[in-house]
Amino acid sequence: MGLVNLLKKIKNKTSRFRRRSYFTTPSHHMGKFIIPKMDEILGEYFYNCDISEIEGIKNFEGPQKQLVHSQENASEVYGTKATFYLTNGSTSGILASMLTILRPYDKVLIARNCHKCVYSGLVLTNALPIWVMPNYNENWGIYEYVNPNIIEQFLELQPDIKAIIITSPSYYGALSDVEKIARIAREKNVYLIVDEAHGALYKFDKTIGTSALDVQADFCIESLHKTAGGVNPTALLHIGFESQIDVNEVQKSLDLITTSSPSYPMLASIEANIDFLSSKKGKAKIATLVNDIERFKKRILKFKNVHIYSQNNDITKILIKIDGFTGFEISDILLNKFNIEDEIANEKSILFICGIGTTSRKLNKLYNAIRKISKMKPKAQECDEILAQEKQVYPIMKYTPFMTKLLHGVKKPLIESLGCVSKDAIVPYPPATPLLLPGEVIQKWHIDNINEEFIEVVAE
Ligand SMILES: Cc1ncc(COP(=O)(O)O)c(C=O)c1O
After folding, report:
1. CA 385, CA 326: separation in Å to the nearest integer?
2. Is there a domain that residue 35 lies in?
3. What is the rounded CA–CA span in Å between residue 175 and residue 289?
4. Checking CA distances to 364, which of 47, 144, 146, 341 falls within 20 to 30 Å?
5. Which of ligand 1's atoms lies nearest the C-alpha of 93?
6. What pLDDT is attached to residue 383?
7. Residue 54 domain-assigned?
């Protein structure tokens, strides 16, 4: 039947389920009581379908069983050993992956541009992070790919490293050579977790990027809500088809960190999302998106003072520079003059994230705005003279993030904190990559780049 059909059936006013008297949770009882004003926001249908496990009638399978079938179908679509639906974002998939394979003091090689949830995973597992710095592009002020040769060197020097965690695509769309990294991981018998939160369309259109699923990473985590049209925070956790990971252990890890009251409307939205992406219509929509973006990029490149980042990048991420303007200035003009909102800007560049909902009309609007900005007179400085702020120092860890949580902290003025150990993570959002980690020694770079007056350090 499928989760979507089940909910359709339940939502029906005349259904036996809606007419039943419930002395169960949730207490709105299929929308018989709705908190005032919420019907205007969510609509009563949401409540009609928001159920717990309910008793069925003959031959009827409850939502739990439908979920199991639905995930099995998804696993077939993606060609995985198992696929799990997530209603707490890629965050929960990354945490569950780490909890499945890492034990206290296990060494894990982590790309320094990872999302903050990887650092939460370190607190939960008490694993020992070894950092690998991705390539940094000074001209664009962004981190790019992780070099597979450097990963290989780390694994040779430290054969007790148990797992690798990389982000591909990066927040800015930079793709790492996941195929080579997966091969190295297999050869060295090391687990590979790929944060593919921004790559949920890859499986359905290989021209956008290479999915870690197609190169047999052990874990691949994708946010449906970022590029694939899903609602916040729907996501998927996939286990590679050939991986040795025990699927039951993954389920146990998910059970540790997820609710026992799942939202079936959200889970059904995941099922419908996958149905659409894998359908003819869905694939055609993605192909149109790719064409529209390619056309947009070609047209934009006709302006000599506008540049688009295109080195091995996910095509749906549009990273732009305009000579003489900082990314922040472009962002201000776009919002205030053209009512266009970007994803993120830095000193050098500005990022636009496209997804399944990006239309050619919207891209045209952006094109016209960029064209007009490219003809404006820049304020003053030459952009290339501005130093990018984001290149980070190599972390020196005194304690693991878990140990740091157990230690006492004291507040200190940031400028007096050189050599102290940070108690917390300092995480600008977006892109939610920590500038400073719990347990990390504060270096001059941190003092120069963190925008806080006080900081909590470990009391020593
Ligand atoms: C690279 C990356 N990984 C993971 C996440 C977490 O994803 P979610 O919001 O689905 O939990 C994000 C969210 O911003 C991200 O940018």
Report:
1. 11
2. yes
3. 19
4. 144
5. 11
6. 47
7. no
Ligand 1 centre from 183 Cα, in Å?
25
Domain count, the chain: 4
CA 8 to centroid of ligand 1, rounded, Å: 31
Task: Tell me what pLDDT residue 244 has.
Answer: 96
DSSP string across 398-436: SS-HHHHHHS-EEEEEGGG-TT-BBSS-B--TTT---SB
Is the CB–ligand 1 distance for residue 91 below 6 Å? yes
How many whole angstroms from 156 Cα to the centroid of ligand 1? 30
Report the candidate in 182, 283, 278, 277 with the shortest Cα–Cα distance to residue 229: 277
Whether residue 297 sits in one domain with residue 350? yes
Residue indicated by tokens 């339940």:
10
Going from the Cα of 166 to the center of ligand 1, the distance in angstroms, rounded, reads 13
Given ligand 1 and candidates 115, 168, 195, 227, which is best to mutate, with the most ligand atoms within 8 Å of its CB? 115
Residue 388 pLDDT: 42
**Model confidence pTM above 0.90:** yes
Decide whether any atom of ligand 1 lies within 6 Å of the 168 Cβ. no
Q: 276-288 as b/e, with b when 16 or more CB fall inside 10 Å?
A: bbbeeebeebbee
Could you tell me the residue range of the domain that residue 34 belongs to? 3-49
Q: How many angstroms separate the alpha carbon of residue 91 from the centre of ligand 1?
A: 6
CB of 171 closer than 6 A to ligand 1?
yes
Residues 257 and 296 in one domain: no
Over residues 240-249, the pLDDT tens digits come to 999 999 999 9
| Whether residue 117 has its Cβ less than 6 Å from ligand 1 | yes
Q: Is there an atom of ligand 1 within 6 Å of 223 CB?
A: yes
Classify residue 58: in a domain, yes or no: no
Alpha helices in 264-385 (DSSP H): 264-278, 280-300, 327-338, 360-374
Q: Which residues have C-beta within 8 Å of that of residue 315, sequence separation ≥ 6? A: 207, 208, 209, 290, 293, 294
The pLDDT averaged over each successive group of 10 residues in the chain (460 residues) is 88 86 91 92 92 72 88 98 98 98 98 95 97 91 93 98 97 95 98 98 95 96 98 97 97 96 95 98 97 96 93 91 94 97 91 97 98 89 47 92 96 97 92 92 94 94
